[in-house]
Amino acid sequence: EADIYQTPRYLVIGTGKKITLECSQTMGHDKMYWYQQDPGMELHLIHYSYGVNSTEKGDLSSESTVSRIRTEHFPLTLESARPSHTSQYLCASSEVLRGQGNTEAFFGQGTRLTVV
Amino acid sequence: KNQVEQSPQSLIILEGKNCTLQCNYTVSPFSNLRWYKQDTGRGPVSLTIMTFSENTKSNGRYTATLDADTKQSSLHITASQLSDSASYICVVSDRGSTLGRLYFGRGTQLTVWP
After folding, report:
1. Which of A17, A21, A82, B102 has an alpha carbon 20 to 30 Å from A11's alpha carbon atom?
2. DSSP of B45-95, one letter per residue?
3. Is the model's pLDDT at B96 over the cut of 90?
4. pLDDT digits (tens, 9 = 90+) for B26-72
5. Among candidates A92, A108, A111, which has minimal Cα distance to A19?
6. CA geometry: angle at A85 spanning A80 and A91, to 5°?
7. Taking CA A39 as the corner, what is the angle to CA A111 and CA A10, rounded to the nearest 5 degrees?
8. pLDDT at position A102, please?
9. B79 to chain A, minimum CA–CA distance in Å?
10. Total beta-carbon pairs less than 8 A apart between chain A and chain B
11. Are strands B86-94 and B30-38 parallel, antiparallel or unpaired?
12. CB contact under 8 A, A88 and B100
């Protein structure tokens, strides 16, 4: 079983509120990701990190921000939530073997966010 | 452009039957390919991982094949069970940069009926 955890699992929040989705992994992986997934649709990369103090934007534009102060922790923040942010957010981590690319990516259980 | 295409988009089969899911990719340079199973409302869980030199890999009732020449992979599920109902996602990793990135297919939604 993967040692990557997301909290909360479900969140219903009002428009304009600031929220932080937590993601922690205990595998010592350098690379971490945030994906956004609407029901029945594919995963879209919104942020990723190569390691501590590294953050990059993904393929899908997102109004969220991320930080990577510690290897094991990769929180995602929305300063002002809107109904258009309603979605499932999945955090993942992977080990990178030099010259071999990523090994397996491990996913958290996801956070189902609903903004009303 | 690096892409991963999966077919069919959705599939319904009866319990006990076999099925095969397809994945075609254009990701280059290729590093590895994984099949993930994603239950509704959960995070994806890895079923198999295959590198360039591997043609077949099994995990219980799941058997994945890889043809690196034609850039095709398949996932064969034997003797399906109701619990196999899920989305199956093909994920390809490149080695183009020092830190490879992941390319996701849209998934095949499998429904197993009793």
Report:
1. B102
2. EEEEEEETT--EEEETTEEEEEETTTTEEEEEE-S--GGG-EEEEEEEEE-
3. no
4. 988 888 899 999 998 889 999 988 887 888 999 999 999 999 899 99
5. A111
6. 105
7. 20
8. 57
9. 25
10. 68
11. antiparallel
12. no
Q: Which of B88, B86, B83, B111 is nearest to B34 (CA)?
A: B88
Q: Is B4 helix (H, G, I), strand (E, B) or coil?
A: strand
Residue type, A109: Q
Cβ-Cβ contacts under 8 Å, A51 against chain B: none
Place of tokens 């509120």: A17
Location of structure tokens 């093909």: B90
CA distance to partner chain B, nearest, from residue A40 (Å): 8
Distance of alpha carbon A3 from the chain centroid? 15
Query: Can you read off the two tokens belonging to residue A31?
Result: 């690379």
Please give the sequence-ordered ranges of beta strands (E in DSSP) within A1-116, or none if there are none: 4-7, 10-13, 19-25, 31-37, 44-49, 56-57, 65-66, 76-78, 87-97, 101-107, 111-115
* CA proximity to B35, closest of B100, B95, B86: B86
pLDDT (average), residues A12-20: 96
Six token digits for residue A32 = 């971490």
* pLDDT range class, residue A101, cuts 50, 70, 90: low
Please state, in angstroms and rounded to a whole number, the distance separating the CA atoms of residues A100 and B99. 9
| Tokens encoding A96 | 């990178």
